[in-house]
Design goal:
This protein is mostly helical and 352 residues long. The protein has helices at 2-57, 73-89, 93-114, 120-132, 139-147, 154-166, 170-178, 185-194, 197-205, 212-225, 231-236, 243-256, 262-265, 274-287, 293-299, 305-317, 321-331, 335-347.
């Protein structure tokens, strides 16, 4: 009897689970049907709207008249997707300005409404589209929200900063100079990439007022630009009292392959910081000047492995580097120096 009751209970449990699974499946199928119908409706509107919209953007029509441009959700979504499509396909300042103007006219009210929505993804997608369509009317709104710290998440705050930089916000540029505490280095570099040349020069001119994270971002951003006219500025950072800024400057000089003035980098061969000694070795290897060899033969016996490795690699790059490394293996008193020299000889296929 007890077994019979347990079997009945188990049967009911399995039946309930089956009902739940079928209900979930039905719900998912219904949702898929609804989504597909919405997508089909949007695609139908896009098909009606595309010829007139593209003719207008290309300048073939003076005005855009189409009954499908209205404030219904489907029409708004269709217009958004077509404007994104046009932005990717059609290039040119005039077309870009027309896309921005149309987005400002038809989407501003909807985007302001979406920015107040509870769903995080909705708010973030609006920020992406404001930037993509270059909707400058949102610049005061976003800057005020940033100043009042009214964004609901840190991700939105950072994205708003990127958008404001793309919109060339003078208020943001001014605030970033005096900002404390700092944002991340990656965010500062995103900002620098988005601002135009006028604001980039503004930050460089106000460099000494910036926090160290922003300063380091500027140095690394200059490396991305590969603009050799920035070398004098980067060299000046070698005299900075802050280690992270000197290291950033040395890395950029190495990436540029610069070692023209020996007096700029020679002092770093005896730095108390291993990162600077390592970067000196790398720069010396790029320069391949005989004056650096005595220091490199010392650094191959450095207490830090990374310094020794950089010194060995640098010596190898010299015309008579193989002979020098063999001499180190045979005569140097330091066991680690011998080992490092032997490793670099082996990398060349030379037996120590």
């Amino acid at each position: 009897m007890i077994l019979s009751n347990a079997f009945v209970v188990l049967l009911y449990i399995n039946l309930v689970l089956v009902i739940i699974l079928f209900s979930l499946l039905a719900f998912l199928l219904i949702q898929k049907v609804i989504i597909n119908r919405k997508a089909a409706k949007v695609e139908k509107i896009k098909a009606y709207l595309r010829p007139d919209l593209f003719a207008y953007l290309l300048g073939n029509e003076e005005a855009l008249y189409n009954r499908w441009i209205n404030d219904t959700p489907f029409s708004i979504q269709a217009l958004e997707e077509l404007l994104e499509e046009a932005a990717m396909m059609l290039k040119g300042e005039e077309i870009g300005a027309t896309i921005s103007s149309l987005a400002e006219e038809r989407l501003t009210a909807e985007y302001k409404r979406r920015l107040t929505k509870r769903r995080w993804s909705t708010r973030m997608n609006v920020l992406y589209r404001i930037e993509g369509f270059h909707m400058t009317s949102f610049s005061p709104h976003l800057w005020l929200a940033l100043a009042e710290n009214s964004f609901q998440t840190e991700a939105e705050q950072k994205e708003a900063i990127r958008v404001l930089a793309s919109l060339q916000s003078q208020a943001l540029a001014r605030d970033l100079v005096d900002l404390a505490p700092p944002y991340s280095k990656g965010l500062y570099k995103d900002v620098l990439r988005r601002f135009n040349n006028t604001y980039q020069l503004f930050f460089i001119e106000n460099y000494e007022k910036l926090n160290n994270v922003f300063k380091q971002a500027i140095i690394e951003w200059m490396a991305e630009k590969q603009d050799y006219s920035n070398i004098p500025f980067i060299k000046a950072q070698l005299k900075q009292p802050h280690l992270e800024l000197r290291i950033a400057a040395l890395k950029v000089l190495y990436l540029f392959g610069y070692a023209e003035e020996e007096t700029d980098i020679y002092p770093f061969s005896s730095s108390v910081h291993w990162q600077e000694r390592m970067l000196f070795a790398k720069l010396a290897g790029a320069a391949k000047k005989d004056r650096f060899l005595p220091q490199l033969t010392k650094l191959i016996a450095d207490e830090n492995w990374f310094v020794r490795n950089a010194a060995g690699e640098a010596i190898q790059k010299y015309a008579d580097g193989t002979l020098i490394l063999q001499h180190i293996v045979e005569t140097h008193r330091d066991r680690y120096a011998k080992d490092m020299a032997a490793q670099w000889l082996e990398s060349e296929g030379v037996t120590a």
